[in-house]
Structure formats: structure tokens, C-alpha cells
Amino acid sequence: MEDLDALRKEATVTDQQVCESAEGFASILLQVFDEMLQERDRRMVTHVPPTSTAPDGLVNDRLDALEKQHQEETTKQELQIELLRKGLSTETAQRKALGIEIESLGKRMRELETQNQAMKSSVDAYGKSIERLETETPGDGVVPALATQTPPTLQGNSVKAEDLAEVKTVVEECLSRVTELVTTVQAHDEKLGEMDTDILNETCDAIVAKLPRLEQTLKRAADDITTLRSDLRAQDMGTKSLQTGAERLHTDLQQLRSDTEKLQSHTEQLRTDADQLLTTGEQLKTYTGQLQSRTELLQSEQEHLKTDTQQLKSETRQLQSKVEQSRLDEQRRTDEKFITVKAFKDMNKHVFETFSGWIEGVRQRVSAVEGEVSTLQGKNDQVRNHDLRIMANEVQAGSRPVSTGQSQNHNPPNGQVSNQVVDLLTIQLEEKLKDYDARLKVLEAVSRSGEQSTHNNTYEESANVVAALAQKRASADSIESMKIAIEALKAQLAMIDSSIKAVCESAKLVNESQTAQGRRIAELESAYAHPWDERVERMLERKLDSMQQKLEFIQHGYTSLDSQINSLTTESLFQSILQHVNKYEPMDALIGSKVETAMQQMNTYEQRLGALERTVSSVDEPAHKKRKLVPFVQAVTNGKH
């Protein structure tokens, strides 16, 4: 019974495990195929798997068939288990009834043994008393013997004939009772002997006949259990391998999803980069137009500066001639003849007005140049950032060998040229700004000195006209200041010439950079306009080929899993379990414990029979025949007297 329960539990556990594993595997497969179909619908790919029938329909049909078969087998198994339970319940009831009868018979035997011992003791006492009376009463002289030897209870009293008659009647009654007891004991012995011999013979014959069968069935059961366990282990390994295969398929599908998402992100990024390139090309075109207009302005300003420098040169020559003429006049004149304050004032006024106009023009030009430099620096930063972004995008798109090769062949030289030109322009513009600052400082110092001289002259004219020496000194100071101003103007003219040359060189560099940028823009437009569709088509073809290979691998895995599911049936397992159950008999479920209990009962019966034989042999009765049982050598009575 315990083995059947254990087998039934193992069968139910294995059935549950197989069902759970099959359901989990089927759910994983359905989920995987559902995700694949959703992904195919989302991407609108026209690739169709080579199988003609839908895999999810095949899996559902297979699962339905397995469920029906499993339900039928479970119903059959439940019916057989119910029949076995009924047979076991009837057998246990019979065994319990037999045990109760055996216990009642044992109690009756104990009572009879106690009664037999009591009767034996009473019979012995009566026999002794009768023998003593017979020895003490010889012949007919009963009365004097009784009178001489009276029992202890009758000592001191006279023995009468009535007393003797009563004693005889008591003795006869005791003898009759003893005979009745002997007959009842013999009848009970016969019944017990017949019952014990029949039970023992039947049990011994059954045990002798069934022991080899039971040993064979036990061996077969052990072999079946080992085979069932090995089958269960093999099925567990198969389910584990199937689970690992399903997990691998799931990871492959996730990797496919991530690859498709990356491809979509790369395509979107390339589209955005193309749009940005178009916008930046338009911006660069506008910037080139602006640069052309500004270069034209710079050229016009250069021409204006040239005219101004020519005017300055002519005026400086005139001033030099006037100064030389004034020196000659001063040398010719005497010490009393000096230049008039009004003429000196008018002369200085004209000079400083021209100088102030020039300084303001230079300041305006410097401010304009600074603004243009700031705009050029901003544009240069934008172009540099755009180039860096394009290069980063091209580096990220490393899976596109054709596009990256083209971009690497065309873009780097232009980017290097533009960066070098921009760096040279920035350095030259910084140097120009430093030169302009130095020039402005010199011009401011000259203007301050001129203003101080004019103020000093007006103060001297208003304060004291009589001081001739002071006027001479002032005229000498004014002449020295004029010399200083002329030298400063010469230095300024030299600096202006150098600045004009630097501006011309910068304009040339700007034109060169503009042409290089225009060429680069044209190359980028030609590179990204014509082979864009071809590159995208090539990338899509590569991705579709890789995805097709992965889908073929998944299809192969699915077919292998379908074949494994077809082979994964529990029919053989249930058949082996049912054969094992049919081999067993219900009464042989607990044969080991039952045999031990039967042996103990036989030993107790043998002990009791030996005690009865000894008690019966003590009484003067003939010996009884003994017979030997088949499986045992010990002697047992048959109950016949």
C-alpha cells in the first residue's frame, strides 16, 4: 500500500512537472512568435517564413491533443486507483475481522487454561482426599475408621453413615464434573487443533507459493522504479534543455530588437545630419555672400585709407616745407621777429582738427574691424562645431564602410585647411588689434600734448603779451611739439601702411578660406546628395540579410523544438505505471509486515500448543499423533484424541 501511494505520488508529481514545463514552454513559444509577428507588422517587412502552416496553430493543436490524451490517461489511472483502493479496503476489513476473531479465540484459550488448572488442582485435592479415605476405611468397618481418623473439620464429633453418603455423593459429583471438564477440554482442543492446523497450513502454503512471486514482483517493482526515475531524470534534462533553448531564442529576439532599434536610430540620425548639412550649406552660402560684401567694403576702406594716407603724406610734406621755411625765416629774422600767436594758433588748430578727424576715422574703422572679427570668430566657431559634429557622426556610423571611406577621403583636408586658415586669421586680427591699440595710445598722447600747448599759448597771450622771452620759449616748445607730432605722424603712417598690408593679406586669406569653404560645401553636397540612397539601400540590405539569417536560425530551433514536443509524450510513462500496478496484487502490498506478523502468531500458537500438550500429557491419556507442517519442522497437534 505504501509503495502504491509513493508511486502514485511520484506519478502525479511527474505529471504536474511535465504539464507545467510543457505549458511554460508553450507560453514562451507563443510569446516569442507574437513578438516576432508584431515586429514584422511594425517594420512592414515582406519576408515570409518558409513554413506553409502557422507555427502557433501547430503548437495549439499539439497542446490540445496532449491535453486530451493526458485527461484520458488520468481518468483511467483514477479508475484503477479506485478499484485498488476498494480491494485494499475489503482486504483490510477481512484482515481486521480475522485479527478480532484470533484475539477472541486467544482470550477464550487463556480462560480455558485457567479453568483447566483450577479443575486440575480441585481434582488432585479430591483424589488425595479419596485415596486417604480409602486407605483409612478397610472393608465394611467404615465407621470405626472414620471415628478413629476424622477430618480436621469433624474432629471431636461422631462420624455417621449420612456423612459418608454425603461424601460419596460429593466425590461422585466431583468425578462427574471432572469428566465433563475433560470432555469440554477435549472438544475445545479438537476445535482449536482443527482451526490452528487449517490456518497454519493455509498460511504456510500461501506464503510458500507466493514468496517467489513476491520476490519477483519486488524486483520488478524496484527495476520499474529505477527505470521510472531514469525516465524522469531524462525528461527533466530534456525540459531543462528546452528551457535553455527558449531562453536563447528569447535573448536572440531581444538582440534583434535592439539591433533594429539601433538601425532605426542611426537612419534617423543620418537624416537629421543630412538636414543639418543642407541648412548649414545654406547658412554657409549666406555667410559667403556676407563675407564677399564685407571684403568689398574692406577693399573700399583700403582704397579710402590709401587716399587718406596720400593726403596725409602731402600735408606732412607741406608741413615739413612750412617748418623748414619758418626755420629759414627765423634764421633770417632778428631776435625781435617771432611768429604771431594767431598764426600759430590757426596752424595748430588746422593740424589738430585733421589729426582728430583721422583719429576718429581710425577708431570707427577699428570698431568696425572688431565687430567683423567677432562675427568671423562666431562663424568660425559654428563651422568648427559643425565639422566636429559631422566627423563624430561619421565615426559613430562605423558599420557603413562605404560612406565612412568617402567622408574620410573628402572631408579631413578641407577641415584641416579651414581650421588652419581660421587660426591664422585670428592670430593676424589679434596682432592688428594690438597695433591699433598702440596707435590709438600714441595719437591720444599727441592730441593731449597739442591741447596742452594750445591752452598754454592762449594763457600766455591773455596773461602777459610783454614777456618776449616766455613767448620765445613757448614758440620753441611749440616747434619741438610740432617736431614730436610730425615724428608721431610718420610712425602712425608707417603703422597705417603695415596695417593696410596686413588687412590686404587678411582679405586674401579670407578669400582663400571662402573659396575652400565653397569647395568643401560643394563636395559635401555632392557626397551626401548622390550616394545617399545607395548607402541607405546597402545598409538596409545588410541588416535584412542578417535578420533573415537570424530568422532562419529561429525557424530551425522552432522545428527542433516541435520535434522534441512530438517526442515528449507521457504515454510510455503511464503505461509502465499501469503495468506495474497491474502486476501487483492488492493483498501483497504490505507483504513484509504481514509475513512478520504471521510468523509471530505462529510462534505464539506453537507455544500455546506445547503448553496444552504438556498439560494433557500430565493427565493419564494416550499420546497423540504428531504431524509436521511443510515449511516448518516444529511439531503441532491436530486436536484429535
Automatic annotation (TrEMBL):
Residues 95-122, 211-273 form a coiled coil. Keywords: Coiled coil. Residues 308-323, 401-417 have a biased composition (Polar residues). Residues 308-331, 398-417 are annotated as: Disordered. This is Uncharacterized protein.
